[in-house]
Design goal:
binds magnesium ion, single chain, about 25% helix, OB fold (Dihydrolipoamide Acetyltransferase, E2P), binds adenosine-5'-triphosphate
């Protein structure tokens, strides 16, 4: 068990800055997901934690010990590159024993650990089998077993589910999360898939262009994105953005959007120009008029449990999640209302979230205690 502290970590490749002045605390026992688009520096960050790459400046401590320039073997962290990395010509038991024999553990300790891991992963009945004959799910469990049998202080995983098909990936997400609940080993998991991040993480760290933009629990990331990038990166269909018709000032509780006045959580910040953000599930279709934002239905898509309506307003295009029993029709003229507490405002210039009564009430924290 270990907490990992990263301070002002900076990594250049020639002139290119891959990781920029990153600071982050990964609390003991938490499942932390590094999430961001391709090239944003996730793997580079993970490799520095593993000791496979050294930073130009900054530090990494593991349980208070400075490990910044220690080699991987000296850190007691297990890197799981891909969960399929098994030796196919060897049996299940041999695959599990291999890392332990490498460490020179005594036979009784090896037997004890294999027994424990096999029981955790429910693969006792497979210990005598060959890898080659295993079904995908069993294979994946054995691969997980190979990582956990070493009982490292932390797991580092770089897109371990990346090569799996969607259905199997979801299954493995559930397995991984259950395993984590049992073992409570600090885990750093890299992905560019937000669904994976949401399903797995206690804490999500959103990165872009080498920078950490937000570190928060999944609910915090979803409801109070720190900036426009995070707001648009997380959530499908994405958050709606509307231009606010004038500047915003502290104390304001409504803002003008395309002639209508939209109630917002009491604003603490100031911005010359602001962008209003509201997720599709917090947009309601109402009768046109009565001061609601006027819009026209452009397109509807059926999802069984709900509809997604695409709407055109003078303030921009929006999407709304509509109840399955209310089928909106193309061309309908409607009014739009927003769930006030769920509205967020951003400074159009800095792109940062503007503090408001809602954001004040939210303490960046962690799920699962
Ligand atoms: N050894 C290297 N030499 C030069 N540039 C590198 C090296 N490793 C990474 N980079 C660059 O640093 C940036 C960040 O790379 P990194 O692999 O950390 O991104 P990533 O977030 O893991 O992306 P992906 O989702 O595609 O795996 C990229 O632009 C990459 O080209
Ligand atoms: Mg990568």
């Amino acid at each position: 068990m270990a907490d990992i502290r990263i301070q002002n970590l900076h990594k250049r490749f020639a002139d290119f800055v891959a990781v920029r002045d990153s600071s982050l605390t990964l609390e003991d026992g938490k499942f932390v997901v590094l999430l961001g688009p391709s090239g944003c520096g996730k793997t580079t960050t993970l490799r520095m934690i593993a000791g496979l790459e050294f930073p130009n400046s900054g530090s990494i401590t593991l349980d208070g010990q400075d490990v910044t320039y220690l080699r991987p073997r000296e850190r007691d962290i297990a890197m799981v590159f891909q969960l399929f990395a098994l030796y196919p010509h060897m049996g299940v038991r041999d695959n599990l024993e291999f890392p332990l024999r490498n460490e020179g553990l005594p036979r009784p300790e090896i037997d004890r650990r294999i027994k424990e891991v096999a029981s955790i992963l429910r693969i006792e009945h497979l210990l005598g089998s060959r890898i080659g004959g295993l079904a995908g799910g069993d294979r994946q469990r054995v691969a997980l077993g190979r990582a956990i049998v070493r009982q490292p202080k932390a797991f580092l995983m770089d897109e371990p589910l990346g090569t799996l098909d969607a259905e199997f990936r979801e299954l493995m997400c559930v397995e991984l999360r259950k395993l984590h609940e049992r073992l409570k080993t600090t885990t750093v998991f890299v992905t560019h898939d937000q669904n994976e991040a949401m399903a797995l993480a206690d804490q999500i760290v959103v990165m872009n262009q080498g920078e950490i933009l937000q570190a928060d629990d999944p609910e915090g990331i979803y409801n109070f994105p720190s900036c426009l990038f995070v707001a648009s990166f997380i959530g499908r269909p994405p958050m709606n953005f509307l231009k606010v018709g004038s500047g915003v000032l502290p104390g304001m509780t409504d803002v003008p959007v395309d002639g209508a006045h939209v109630n917002v959580p009491e604003i603490d910040g100031v911005a010359e120009q602001a962008v209003l953000g509201v997720r599709p599930e917090h947009v309601q279709l109402v009768a046109n008029g009565n001061g609601a934002l006027a819009a026209q239905v452009k397109h509807v898509e059926y999802f069984g449990s709900h509809w997604i309506a695409e709407l055109e307003s003078a303030a921009g295009t929006l999407k709304a999640v509509v109840d399955k029993d209310l089928r909106p029709a193309d061309g309908d003229r409607v009014g739009l209302q927003f769930n006030t507490e769920r509205i967020v405002l951003f400074d159009a210039k800095t792109q940062a979230l503007l503090p408001s009564a809602s954001t004040r009430a939210h303490q960046p924290g962690m799920r699962h205690g």
